[in-house]
Amino acid sequence: MKKFGVGVIGCGAIFIVHAYPLLRMEETEIKAVCDIKLEARRAAAELFHCDAYSDYRELLARDDIDVVHILTPHYLHAPMAIAAAEAGKHVLTEKPMAISMEQAHAMLEAARRNGVTLGVIFQNRYNAASVAIKNALVNGSLGRIIGQRVVLSWTKPAEYYKRSDWHGTWDKEGGSLMIDQAIHVMDLARWFVDEEIASVQASIANRNHPEIETEDTAEGLITYRNGVKCVFFATNNFTYNAPVVVETHCEDGTALLEFDKAVITYRNGQELTVVNDPAETVNEAEYRAFFNEESSQVALRTLKEWGVIMLPVTWKAPRSYWGVTHIKQIQNFYTSLAEGVPPDITGEEALKTQQLIMAIYQAAKEQRTIEF
Fold this sequence. Notes:
37% of the residues lie in helices and 23% in strands. The protein is an alpha/beta fold. The protein has two domains: 4-123 and 281-346, Rossmann fold (3-Layer(aba) Sandwich), CATH 3.40.50; 125-277 and 354-371, Dihydrodipicolinate Reductase, domain 2, CATH 3.30.360. Strands 14-13-12-11-7-10-9-8-15 form a nine-stranded mixed sheet. Helix 2 runs antiparallel to helix 11, helix 5 (101-114) packs antiparallel against helix 13 and helix 9 crosses helix 13 (347-366). It is globular.
């Protein structure tokens, strides 16, 4: 079995969701981490028993690193991915792949030119609820898709943006609500329809966050080439993160996704309910034990010395309503590398969702329908 040397660039909030599977997988060995914040990279290095860098280019120069995970702010995804590809490294980056179509295409070209694999995280496709709906649509049991609706009503307090130097900016985050929060739901909706987009109409607004320059509300209409129309509404102005809704209306029934639950209702009265089971991908006791191991405790002690009281450097556990399927996508990425085949979610596949999000912004800013 080939063992891949891994480098992780970015040791912030999403770090632990990648760290956990990388530590438990037999085919990966973490060689180095990188972060501009000393306490973050120091804690991650303690956890991994590996080297740490403040400059990602030093990490990329290492011959023993085969794969790079990019977990940095949005505006750094493209330049770091391109540099990694030029260094001959495979790349798995968090969403969004970039903050512009030009950057996204440049990433794909760099990967092709250097013969490396580019993958983009859209882990919610692996949730049991998402898979159940996709299977029902693919096997034809629901018949032809007629229409679709997407609703996201979440909350983002002012403090979320005030404590960040890149959230809520066009030049660093590339937007806000749509490119950061709603992108996961829009990706699932597009994946369910699985058709080329014909046009996008949209509007965006900032209704309740004067501290940012980007949007906190969006709505619109997506028309696919097969005639299916998807209506969507998203906001960060609700009082809590309510269950997202993706309802796909078909000839022979409906498929309703609400966070971690899928309800597939057929015209003949049959109904199938599937709820994500986190135990399917991670044992809770094992996950908790992970934080009690000596390396984790060393990392925690290091952070306390720096006055950091939160979970290591704001590392966060997977959101319960989405499940813990980062593990499945990361495993698929490495299995695909070992077998010499493309992963499930390639850069080319992620580009389709990138194009949708960029079209929503363009349609709203230019106040016109964007034709594909």
